[in-house]
């Protein structure tokens, strides 16, 4: 599941807790207490609802990644079980078929939960009138819901889509009986193999996890929960955490490192901020392109399923190349700026070295070796090593040495993009839209014989029935295409962000390694201060966009 703002803040705090204890011991306890309170207070709740043998507990365990919810052969739960999940909580309640007094517990929780996951067995779901009626009651209350088909055995794509279409028809019928407006867009239907998903998480099998369908469920939960979070409260919490990091950095700086070390620390701070900004900028661009692809994919599949696959693959390729071109340009700009900053660092080191060079004789740094600088703590700096390290880094980060994003992309994109959404693309290739939901009008012909059964004007009744069936069929067809388009866009976004992150990582790894080498010219105490400061500065940079 993707990080939410709060989960990212918790992760950042965990990474700096021990460092802050060294430099800001007085300010740390209140922040630890605040973080603990935030963690103990779920930001939203997810209720899992269904009959006892539909796989509720297995799905909960799959989401948790551990076997905590008890799997039973008969209804046993008579209360609500709560399981922490990220900064949220998952609620396990008595099943739909639980005794009446237990079922009352379930119904109370239904209307207080933020998201409800309906878990059903795909083979009998069409007949589960009670489940579907309850689902539509929640839709009428504008609750966020997800309908999960827990497929214990693999379903071929075409079979799965026919099953979902039948389910959508049944939902439309019940909604019509209740005089509800079109509801399908509010009811995402997902296929998940909970047993495979749990196995994949327990054994660390990424391919099995992807095939299980659980990542798509986590995606939809993240989308719902992200919109539920109270952004002002979250921003206030992160702002306080960031202020605490600022205070800690200021206290660390009071230890009084030299101007040369301060210049190197400033260089790292600039680099860390630029890296975070670059990732955020390109992620935003990828999300915008994904939205564009989703819209165009919907139009392509709707208008011409036969040619849709080719058109969508071209859309993906073009969008991917635009993002990689932007990445390459930004990396060259960054290399240029970094070179300028390093020159300033080098000038500072050379100036400070001269201040501590004996003025008698013909001494030179290259000939005589290190010139020690004794600080307030009796520490020393090897200026020769610093200058050599900075010069080496300067040659490393020249613009021409940037790992080409376009070349990088060519190595990765064929496997990433040509294989993107194999199941979804396969559905398009099979013309599943036409096979599952026939062209509008074909099914209507079979219903025309019903007109004689109505007492009012037969022709008028037939036209009304035609219009009604056409509208229902159009709604089901659009929902199918919408889900396929969302899957294509989601996989594109994940793929391109993965390529971008890997390229940025490859460009920065060597630079960060060289920075560690440069710190070899510091004393142990100075090196610890500089490395701790780097961790705090990076933490601050990561949190800054969320304030």
Strand content: 5-15%
Gross morphology is: elongated
Number of strands: 6
What is the structural class?
A: mainly alpha
- Tally of structural domains: 3
Rg (C-alpha, Å): 30 Å
* Mean pLDDT rating: 79
Please count the helical segments: 20
Largest sheet: 6 strands, mixed
The poorly predicted ranges are 359-379, 441-455
**Distance between the first and last residues' Cα:** 22 Å
Binned, the helix content reads 55-70%
The strand order across the widest sheet is: 2-3-1-4-5-6
What's the structural blueprint in terms of helices and strands?
Layout: H1 5-23, H2 28-40, E1 45-49, H3 56-64, E2 81-85, E3 88-92, H4 100-110, E4 115-120, H5 129-140, E5 144-150, H6 157-177, E6 189-192, H7 194-203, H8 206-212, H9 214-228, H10 231-253, H11 259-303, H12 305-355, H13 365-368, H14 383-396, H15 405-417, H16 422-429, H17 432-436, H18 442-447, H19 458-518, H20 524-543
Parallel strand pairs: 1-3, 1-4, 4-5, 5-6
Antiparallel strand pairs: 2-3
Describe the structure.
- This protein has 547 residues and is mostly helical.
- The chain has 3 domains: 1-40 and 230-254, no CATH class; 44-228, Rossmann fold; 255-546, no CATH class.
- It is built from 20 helices and 6 strands.
- It has helices spanning 5-23, 28-40, 56-64, 100-110, 129-140, 157-177, 194-203, 206-212, 214-228, 231-253, 259-303, 305-355, 365-368, 383-396, 405-417, 422-429, 432-436, 442-447, 458-518, 524-543; strands spanning 45-49, 81-85, 88-92, 115-120, 144-150, 189-192.
- The chain has a 6-stranded mixed beta sheet, sandwiched between helices.
- Helix 5 links the parallel strand 4 and strand 5.
- The longest helix has 61 residues, at 458-518.
- The two termini are 22 Å apart.
- Mean pLDDT is 79; it is low at 359-379 and 441-455.
């Amino acid at each position: 599941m993707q990080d939410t703002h709060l989960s990212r803040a918790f992760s950042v705090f965990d990474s700096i807790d021990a460092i802050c204890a060294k430099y800001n011991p007085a300010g740390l306890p209140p922040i630890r207490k605040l973080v603990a309170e935030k963690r103990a207070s779920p930001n939203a709740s997810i209720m899992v609802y269904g009959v006892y043998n539909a796989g509720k507990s297995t799905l909960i365990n799959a989401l948790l990644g551990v076997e905590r919810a008890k799997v039973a052969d008969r209804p046993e739960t008579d209360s609500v079980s709560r399981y922490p999940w990220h900064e949220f909580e998952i609620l396990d309640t008595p099943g739909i078929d639980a005794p009446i007094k237990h079922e009352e517990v379930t119904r109370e929780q239904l209307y207080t939960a933020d998201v409800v996951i309906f878990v059903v067995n795909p083979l009998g779901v069409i007949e589960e009138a009670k489940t579907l009626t309850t689902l539509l009651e929640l839709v009428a209350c504008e609750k966020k819901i997800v309908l999960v088909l827990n497929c214990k055995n693999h379903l071929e794509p075409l079979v799965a889509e026919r099953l979902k279409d039948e389910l959508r028809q049944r939902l439309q019928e019940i909604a019509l009986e209740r005089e509800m407006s079109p509801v399908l867009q509010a009811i995402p239907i997902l296929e998940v193999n909970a047993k495979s998903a749990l196995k994949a998480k327990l054994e660390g099998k990424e391919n099995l996890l992807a095939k299980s369908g659980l990542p798509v469920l986590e995606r939809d939960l993240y989308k719902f929960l992200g919109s539920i979070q109270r952004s002002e409260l979250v921003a206030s919490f992160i702002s306080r955490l960031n202020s605490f990091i600022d205070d800690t950095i200021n206290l660390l700086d009071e230890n009084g490192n030299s101007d040369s070390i301060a210049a190197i620390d400033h260089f790292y701070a600039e680099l860390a901020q630029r890296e975070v900004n670059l990732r955020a900028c390109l992620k935003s661009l990828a999300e915008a392109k994904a939205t564009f692809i989703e819209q165009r994919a919907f139009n392509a599949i709707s208008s011409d399923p036969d040619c849709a696959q080719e058109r969508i693959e071209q859309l993906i390729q073009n969008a991917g190349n635009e993002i990689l071109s932007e990445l390459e340009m930004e990396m060259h700009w960054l290399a240029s700026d970094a070179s300028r900053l390093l020159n300033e660092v080098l000038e500072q080191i050379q100036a400070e070295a001269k201040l501590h060079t004996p003025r008698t004789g013909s001494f030179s740094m290259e000939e005589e070796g290190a010139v020690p600088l004794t600080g307030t703590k009796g520490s020393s700096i090897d200026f020769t090593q610093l200058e050599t390290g900075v010069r080496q880094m300067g040659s490393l980060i020249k613009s021409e040495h940037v790992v080409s994003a376009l070349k990088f992309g060519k190595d990765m994109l064929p496997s990433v993009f040509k294989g993107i959404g194999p199941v979804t693309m396969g559905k398009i290739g099979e013309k599943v839209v036409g096979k599952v939901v026939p062209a509008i009008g074909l099914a209507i012909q079979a219903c025309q014989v019903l007109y004689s059964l109505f007492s009012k004007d037969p022709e008028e009744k037939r036209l009304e029935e035609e219009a009604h069936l056409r509208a229902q069929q159009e709604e089901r067809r659009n929902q199918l295409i919408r889900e396929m388009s969302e899957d294509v866009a989601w996989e594109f976004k994940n793929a391109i962000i993965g390529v971008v992150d890997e390229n940025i990582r490859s460009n920065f790894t060597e630079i960060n390694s060289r920075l560690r080498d440069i710190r070899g010219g510091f004393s142990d105490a100075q090196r610890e201060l500089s490395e701790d400061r780097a961790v705090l500065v990076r933490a601050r940079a990561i949190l800054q966009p969320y304030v």
